[in-house]
Amino acid sequence: MMAAFAYGLVFWILLSEVKSWNDLTGVVPDEFSEFDGEDNLEQSVWAPYPPLEGQCPDLNRKYKDAMVVLKNLEDGMLGDMCEDPSCTKIIVTSNGLSAVKQPTRFGLFFLHGWNQHDSQGVKYPSYFRPAAEQYVFYMHELGAWDYWHSYDRWIIGPTHNKAMGGIMIKPYDPEKVCPWQIKWFRTHRWYHDVNIPNLWNPIGNPWKIDDTIFIECYKEERWPEFDCECTNFNVTSEGRVKEYHPDRLGEYTKLTDMYKEGYLAPVYAKVSPGPPSYLYSHHPKGKVWLVGSTTSTWSLRLNKLSSSADNDCPFDWKVEEEWEYLQSKKGEKEVWLRDTDLDIECLD
Questions:
Q1: Is the pTM of this model over 0.85?
Q2: Beta strands of the chain (E only): which ranges?
Q3: pLDDT digits (tens, 9 = 90+) for 195-213
């Protein structure tokens, strides 16, 4: 197998001036094998921000030149593969349990390059989302997964061209090489959950069906970046969150310019003293909200998938939508409980 990347040329140009970048890392939920009352998991998240204007003129010039080259590559590449050079961004979304179990796999993705397998000779475009460091890519063979010995699937995961991920899509017609052209009728979609033993495999099959998973070409009028009514707010609780996750409580403020990382919902960061904490939603309509020590980890969650609103914010919820906290985790088994005392108060 081999993979070619359009962004490789851009990075080569920039790396001639910039000597080091942080490595991409995987994405995992907050871990609590034996909960000790401390949320000490930290994880770095890298995003390819452009250089600041006026900081380094020579690097700015090289960056702008590289963007012109990249735009030409994008247009030519997509035109050759999909006969549509305009779809350089895609939306991955779900209104099912995959949005709760695998929340970092969804959102706005940007064209990354392509994937080509020697046994096929066909190129498939690949997409990347900086916010959670996830790729959408096509694999002809999935031999790396012990349980699956099959072919022709779209994968959403942290490593390009490697069968490791949380979402898997088997298209009805594999000849459609672009993910937004998938014929969803008879297309099968799965998300990774807890292993359930069966007669064929005592270890179990962790894959669950979710036919609400969709990929479509990004259209701003259909998937606008949206805002919520509060810019600053205070998260408090006199319940179990105060006992189990005290670092998640405190004052938060809205971060700016998060669209470039793949967010359509607002992102908030804690500003009061203590370890870092973020309140965020990877879901493009804000149907699942999370609070964690990074924007890829979480120990609190709010499920608003049943809401009929077009876009949802985390400041109000129905009785059946109350915030949950991670009470314990051992292996794959997690215990989530509700905290009816958790409150979010707007400060402006």
A1: no
A2: 2-4, 89-93, 107-116, 123-129, 134-141, 151-157, 167-170, 188-196, 205-209, 214-217, 232-236, 250-254, 268-270, 278-280, 288-292, 300-303, 324-330, 333-338, 343-346
A3: 887 777 777 889 999 999 9
